[in-house]
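A.,

Following up on our hallway conversation. Structure tokens first:
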């Protein structure tokens, strides 16, 4: 036995044509067509002489023998059925089946992905966590400034002061004493020659000479101390200036180190951001490609639909018209002509069109 559900539309149509030929051949008294009719059409056939019985072989209603009787006049009726020609209709129905099967297949929609942080961005984030890059250098600068301030406020110790004394100062004092001794000997010689050695005049002269020697030595010592103090102060000032300059330079270097580190971080983040942007674009391009592949079957169906819509369409039509007469004879003749027109129109239509458009099966 044939499983009709497993047949495609073309196979079903071919099977229907064969069954139509076989079943329609079982008609009695010239009935050769199968048709769907409504209640009004059934009554019309009976009124005009149709049998209205059941075909003993097919079990379908039959209306042979109609076409001549009288009866009541019926209202004007015009019925027209328009559809595609069988060949074109089969293709369109097949396209509808393809579309229906396609919509029942789940579509794999790719997930939306976000590109992760790039390697350079990770390095930038790690570097940004390191704070105080230039702090050690700045601390050194601060130490130099503090050292300069402290050095400027200190007085020299005896050991430090001695380091600034003229190392030949002893020679200078010895030379003054030697020159004074020579002068003392000269005064003693003069006193001896004058016969006044050991007298008061010589004593006074010796005392004055000794005072001059001491004054000269004192002046020389004072000059040496003043010179040493000046040298110490100049050295102290130079040390302070050097400390201040060093502190300023170190502070500037620390700030530059911090700025350079920040610049490196910014450069890493910018380059890493570009890497991540390119990675995101690659992910989006991949997703767009997968979406296009998923929708490609639908595009083919749409393309084929447009082809069918723009192509030539051959339509078939069934027209049925009944008109009441003005007297019983004309009424009977008109009814007979209407039934004959219906019969003739049905004979001209393809079997598929006749079967699908009527509303009730009958054998005529």
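Then the amino acids I'd put at each of the 364 positions:
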């Amino acid at each position: 036995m044939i499983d009709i559900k497993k047949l495609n539309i073309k196979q079903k149509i071919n099977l229907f044509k064969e069954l139509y030929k076989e079943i329609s051949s079982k008609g009695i008294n010239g009935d050769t067509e199968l048709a769907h009719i409504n209640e009004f059409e059934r009554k019309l056939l009976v009124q005009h002489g149709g049998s209205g019985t059941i075909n003993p072989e097919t079990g379908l209603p039959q209306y042979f023998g109609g076409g001549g009787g009288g009866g009541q006049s019926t209202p004007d009726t015009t019925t027209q059925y328009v559809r595609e020609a069988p060949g074109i209709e089969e293709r369109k129905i097949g396209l509808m089946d393809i579309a229906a099967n396609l919509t029942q297949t789940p579509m794999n929609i790719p997930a939306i992905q976000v590109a992760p942080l790039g390697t350079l961005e990770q390095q930038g984030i790690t570097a940004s966590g390191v704070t105080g890059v230039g702090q050690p250098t700045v601390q050194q600068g601060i130490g130099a400034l503090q050292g300069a301030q402290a050095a400027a406020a200190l007085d020299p110790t005896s050991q430090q002061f001695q380091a600034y004394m003229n190392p030949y100062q002893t020679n200078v004092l010895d030379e003054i004493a030697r020159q004074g001794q020579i002068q003392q000997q000269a005064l003693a010689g003069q006193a001896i020659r004058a016969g006044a050695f050991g007298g008061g005049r010589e004593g006074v002269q010796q005392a004055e000479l000794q005072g001059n020697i001491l004054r000269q030595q004192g002046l020389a010592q004072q000059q040496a101390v003043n010179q040493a103090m000046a040298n110490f102060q100049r050295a102290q000032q130079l040390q302070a200036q050097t400390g201040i300059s060093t502190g300023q330079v170190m502070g500037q270097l620390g700030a530059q180190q911090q700025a350079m580190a920040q610049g490196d971080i910014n450069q890493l983040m910018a380059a890493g951001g570009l890497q991540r942007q390119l990675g995101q674009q690659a992910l989006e391009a991949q997703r767009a490609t997968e979406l296009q592949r998923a929708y490609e079957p639908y595009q083919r169906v749409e393309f084929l639909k447009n082809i069918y819509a723009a192509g030539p369409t051959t339509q078939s039509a069934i027209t049925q018209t009944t008109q009441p007469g003005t007297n019983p004879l004309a009424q009977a003749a008109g009814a007979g002509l209407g039934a004959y027109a219906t019969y003739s129109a049905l004979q001209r239509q393809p079997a598929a069109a006749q079967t699908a458009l009527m509303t009730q099966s009958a054998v005529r």
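Residues 68-74, 322-364 have pLDDT under 50 and may be disordered. Curious whether your intuition agrees with the design.

B.
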